[in-house]
């Protein structure tokens, strides 16, 4: 059998120049309009269908994709009854000998506003300043569909062959992608044999090189409620006899977490870190050093201590990386049953409710963890109080498959070409439910999970921003990796 003639390789400098022009002349403006639309995920907008904002951002993105007139592209907005909409596109392969498909993923739904925005910024008032586009959702993850199409367009402009490409842009990711599986099932015959997944919904260790996400934590969430009274009563009359619902809440949470260290107590919530991930974490710790923890917006008051900022749980860069990627953690993300401070009188409150968010190691099954969590929290309640845990959903984490030689080489060459440094490898503490689904469905596919959420980008929080210079280089890198996949396919003997 004769090897195929290698296709034309992408010219990196030209690619970055033209991709940058596309960002400056068009994409930044598109994302500015997108940020201004409060298209909150269904978990935070139960009336999303009536609002019509998710439909609006999908229609806007679809109109822009169609306006690019990408050769061989077909597009549709898919709507299943009662589900959030999905944007789906297909681009024909330019190679006859290209049996595998590239799947490009992103999402257009957003987290809610949150407080603490800089006085001249806001979640729905985009501002472009010093290469940063501020506002909710631009970096997480509205830019993905625009960057994906821009990357393909550059391949087309340089006449670089590419495999068949499909795009799946959902609107329920920030709600745990609970609508995604029905769409994957419905679209599965059209996905093809996926050989490369490009997911641009992740983070970056710095803005100086391409970063490949190698693992994602899972998530379990829900509402824990402790009720001890049917109504509020005078605290002077009842306290000491009637136990505080808040104190009971603390007792219940003590079953789950060691409050002194933050370590989750159930052994089943932990797992061993694979040797390759540990080695990658060591290399990344060397690259990032103290920036692993200094990147966060710490409170700058030392309370008489020796530092000028609050202290992390560890200052060892390796342990810091592992704690935020391979250890389970508990966060209280919301509360109910408390009056505002100005309205708080001498009243013993009837109940306390906390919204709990657990991040689980990549190899821990989320469904099993949720069930164990419910049993742990509800059984044998102190004082026979009414303690309930309402499951808010969960998603199992993800550990990337082994990297093939062509993919590793392509990542390094793209990073060197567009950043002047080798590709970095990093685990992320966030959750992308799609990745585990795709790894199970396409176990041989390579996973290019990258993103623009680098230091201080603050996804989900105040002052969230998209680092545009990094996004430009990432877009060009995506084009180069797709071109490398085509080159690899062409080098394989025809069957």
Question: Care to describe what's here?
Answer:
This protein is an alpha+beta fold and 495 residues long. It folds into two domains: 12-216 and 398-491, Aminopeptidase (3-Layer(aba) Sandwich); 219-277 and 316-395, Alpha-Beta Plaits. It contains 14 helices and 18 strands. A hairpin with a 7-residue loop joins strand 1 and strand 2 (86-91). Helix 1 runs antiparallel to helix 4 (138-157) and helix 1 (12-35) crosses helix 14 (468-491). The longest helix is centred in the first third of the chain and has 24 residues, at 12-35. The termini are close together. 44% of the residues are buried.
Structure in a nutshell:
The chain is of the alpha+beta class and 495 residues long.
Name the features.
alpha+beta, 14 helices, 495 residues, 18 strands, disordered N terminus, Alpha-Beta Plaits, single chain, 6-stranded mixed β-sheet, 4-stranded antiparallel β-sheet, Aminopeptidase, 35% helix, 2 domains
Describe the protein's topology:
Blueprint: H1 12-35, H2 48-51, H3 53-67, E1 73-78, E2 86-91, E3 101-107, E4 127-129, E5 132-134, H4 138-157, E6 164-170, H5 180-191, E7 194-199, E8 211-216, E9 218-227, E10 233-234, H6 235-238, H7 245-254, H8 275-288, H9 291-294, H10 317-323, E11 329-336, E12 347-348, E13 351-360, H11 366-378, E14 386-395, E15 398-399, H12 405-419, E16 424-428, H13 433-441, E17 446-449, E18 465-467, H14 468-491
Helix pairs in contact: 1-4, 1-14, 4-14, 8-10, 12-14
């Amino acid at each position: 059998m004769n090897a195929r003639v290698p296709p034309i390789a992408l010219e990196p400098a030209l690619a970055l120049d033209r991709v940058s022009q596309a960002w400056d002349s068009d994409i930044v403006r598109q994302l500015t309009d997108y940020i201004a639309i409060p298209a909150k995920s269904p978990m935070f907008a139960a009336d999303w269908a009536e609002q019509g904002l998710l439909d609006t951002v999908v229609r806007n993105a679809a109109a822009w994709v169609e306006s690019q007139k990408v050769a061989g592209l077909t597009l549709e907005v898919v709507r299943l009854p009662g589900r959030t909409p999905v944007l789906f596109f297909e681009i024909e392969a330019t190679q006859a000998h290209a049996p595998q498909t590239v799947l490009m993923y992103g999402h257009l739904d957003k987290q809610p506003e949150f407080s603490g925005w800089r006085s001249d910024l806001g979640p729905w008032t985009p501002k472009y300043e010093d290469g940063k586009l501020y506002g909710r959702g631009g970096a997480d993850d509205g830019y993905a569909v625009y960057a994906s199409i821009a990357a393909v367009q550059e391949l087309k402009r340089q006449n670089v062959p590419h495999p068949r490409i499909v795009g799946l842009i959902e609107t329920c990711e920030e709600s745990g992608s609970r609508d995604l599986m029905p769409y994957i099932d419905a679209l599965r015959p059209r996905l093809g044999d996926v050989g490369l997944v490009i997911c641009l919904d992740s983070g970056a260790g710095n803005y100086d090189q391409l970063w490949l996400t190698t693992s994602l934590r899972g998530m379990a969430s829900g509402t824990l409620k402790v009720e001890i009274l049917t109504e509020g009563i005078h605290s002077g009359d009842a306290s000491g006899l009637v136990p505080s619902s808040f104190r009971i809440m603390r007792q219940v949470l003590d079953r789950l977490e060691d409050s002194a260290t933050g370590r989750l107590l159930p052994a089943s919530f932990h797992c061993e870190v694979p040797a390759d991930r540990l080695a990658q974490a060591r290399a990344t710790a060397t690259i990032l050093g103290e920036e692993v923890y200094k990147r966060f917006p710490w409170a700058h008051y030392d309370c008489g201590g020796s530092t000028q900022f609050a202290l992390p749980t560890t200052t060892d860069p390796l342990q810091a990386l592992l704690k935020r990627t391979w250890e389970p953690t508990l966060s209280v993300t919301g509360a109910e049953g408390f009056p505002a401070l100005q309205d708080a009188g001498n009243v013993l409150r009837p109940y306390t409710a906390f919204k709990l968010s657990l991040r689980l190691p990549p190899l821990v099954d989320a469904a099993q963890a949720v069930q164990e969590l419910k049993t742990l929290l509800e059984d044998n309640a102190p004082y026979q109080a009414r303690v309930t845990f309402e499951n808010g959903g969960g998603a199992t984490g993800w550990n990337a498959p082994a990297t093939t030689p062509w993919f590793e080489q392509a990542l390094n060459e793209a990073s060197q070409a567009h950043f002047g440094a080798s590709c970095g490898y990093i685990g992320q503490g966030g959750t992308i439910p799609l990745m585990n689904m795709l790894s199970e469905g396409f176990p041989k596919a390579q996973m290019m999970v990258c993103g623009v959420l680098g230091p201080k980008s603050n996804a989900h929080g105040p002052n969230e921003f998209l680092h545009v210079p990094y996004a430009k280089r990432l877009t060009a890198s995506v084009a180069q990796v797709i071109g490398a996949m085509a080159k690899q396919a062409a080098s394989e003997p025809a069957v």
